[in-house]
Amino acid sequence: MCPVNWHPGVNKRRKTKSLRKHLSKTYADLRADRENIELRLELAQSLVKLGRLDLARRHVFRVTNEPDLNRHQRRLAGELLFKLGHHAQAVKLLGPTIKGEKGDADALRTISAIRCKYEDFLGARQDLVLASKLDPFIHEVSNDNRPTVLLVRCAEGCFLNAVRDMETGITERLRKRGHFSTDEFISIDDFNVILYDMVKGFTPSPEDIPKVDMILNTASDGDSNGPLFPWMSEMLELFAGVPVLNHPRQVAKTTRDRNALRLGNIPHVLFPRTQNLGYNGHALSFLNKLKDEGFSFPLIIRIPGTQTGITVKKLENSNEALDYLVSKEGADEFYVTEYVDCKNTSGRYTKCRCFFIDGRFYPVAGLSSDCWQIHSGDRYRIMDKEPDTQEREKRYLSDPEDFLGPEVFQALHDVRDVIGLEFFGIDFTVTNDNRLLIFEANASMRHNFDHADNFPYTRPYLETISWAFNTMLRRRCGLT
């Protein structure tokens, strides 16, 4: 377990005290100058951050009724309306402020997220790319006494989406597709954080390139970001001598088909045959291609570059395959994977997850289900009703080597050596004949505390993972 008191949301809670102090001062200033629009918007910002949304909304709408807002005021009000869920009003305020200048980037990112929410994906991508060219570096946290970490993302390999937090009610811009989140990994007490949205073919001005102590590539999907990785590697040379974690050259090798080829030869490892097959829109031709490539039903199919099982389906026969292909109009390629029936002797399907952080193994979860496709939602469909499944997870978390056995545990470390990333995860199970069956191995895996309150025995292990990742960064920056 981690030797420090790391807990979820630690960064947010450390900001709350200073926010409340600032709120009190802003209230006092506004009482002395009630017509000051800037102060009223500043007050609304603090109220939103503290979760007092109804009160914030009243202040923002009072401002938007003013006839002559300047450009800065329109932007502040537009961003607040976005956070409060009033998207049409936000675009109405933000749109006229955009003039193709560096200061337009944040408004463009917000409009991009709104476009994505309403499925204008082309417009969303164009706005995000333009924002990334105007201002590629976003300074999130700044303190001269701390090392600076540069988080690198691919602007063209992802979207920003407008997502309402069900707990707080606040709408945020969340990166969608192809990247892993560092929200529960990096402590703002230890580091400055700069985000770099990279665009293929665009080189930032030398005066804009910040001085950093370490680079963390958060682009994690070799399919959606793969075409951009050579350019990313070239751009990273601008930061000569700065260590890079999860270098894009290594991430590019973690696509499902490449993993199947290079991991399947490891002793005691079973990685089902996986191929990326092109699709020209003719379903019958694709079925013939499956046969020519030696695939038979049942099989698993998905669209490359997608995660969380959104496009995954197990196809039992050619009729199901035809229905699936017709439903995926516009897709031009699919991953096809041999189906391996991995139901255990108790009649359950299981999936374990582990992370490797700086070379060390960390257990994350051990899920059980009555379905071959296992997700965290099975905790509430199956595991909260069957105590034996929770006991199984506890055994995995508390002593993974004993739970898995020495051969499988060693096989996981052999996979680590082949993958060669400073951070990545493996989803797997152990077959009835004691082989490591890998579902996927890459860095596109969330680390979160979503279920820790309902399954409290998982919390210490999740805290350890957060601590381990932050410690890796501290070590690479010479802090430990």
Task: Tell me what you see in this structure.
The two termini are 18 Å apart. β15 and β16 form a beta hairpin. The chain is of the alpha/beta class and 480 residues long. It has helices spanning 10-32, 37-49, 53-64, 71-83, 87-94, 105-117, 121-134, 229-236, 248-251, 256-263, 283-292, 318-327, 378-381, 387-398, 400-404, 406-419, 459-476; strands spanning 137-141, 148-154, 159-164, 171-176, 192-198, 214-217, 244-245, 269-270, 274-278, 299-302, 313-315, 333-338, 349-357, 360-369, 423-430, 436-442. Among the domains are: 273-338, 2-Layer Sandwich (Dna Ligase, domain 1); 349-476, D-amino Acid Aminotransferase, Chain A, domain 1. The longest helix has 23 residues, at 10-32. 39% of the residues lie in helices and 19% in strands. The strands form four sheets. It has a five-stranded mixed beta sheet. A five-stranded mixed beta sheet has the order 8-16-15-13-14. A four-stranded antiparallel beta sheet has the order 9-12-10-11. α1 runs antiparallel to α2 (37-49), α2 runs antiparallel to α3 and α3 runs antiparallel to α4.
Which descriptors apply to this entry?
single chain, 480 residues, alpha/beta, Dna Ligase, domain 1, D-amino Acid Aminotransferase, Chain A, domain 1, 5-stranded mixed sheet, 16 strands, globular, ATP-grasp domain-containing protein, TPR-like_helical_dom_sf
